[in-house]
Amino acid sequence: MKSEGTNLNCYDSILVNSKGRRHCRHPDYPTLNGKRLDESGCVLEQGNDGVECTPTEADYEVIETHGRPWIMLNVLNIGFEHAIQFSIDDHKLWIVANDGGFVKPQLVDVLYITNGARYTVLVKLDQE
């Protein structure tokens, strides 16, 4: 991919329960830290003009919690090229398992998930 001028840290969408949307870069933001961005918002490597971006309108996944104080989520990175960072706005995550094995709970703001990894997290539902 890199030899073709593709930014290795760029992807179109993240799926939640098989649902996700492709968002395109807003035209008012053509650069990031002085580097040109393609239509998808990916940094353009030298010699590459990027690809056209067509946004999608798929449904987002909504997880109903019905007033519960906590939710447990299994978060997986089934990708093969990129690690991802997972967070939930205004919430901390309690890591309670890694790849199916329970671990000493650890409180984090962001979960860094390498290729093929799975984490189980608890989230306290005390924010709007």
Automatic annotation (TrEMBL):
What are the Plastocyanin-like domain coordinates in residue numbering? Answer: 11-127
Signal peptide span per the entry?
none
Pfam families this protein is in?
Answer: Cu-oxidase
What InterPro entries has UniProt attached to this entry? Answer: Cu-oxidase_2nd, Cupredoxin
Where is coiled-coil annotated?
none
Protein known as: Laccase-1
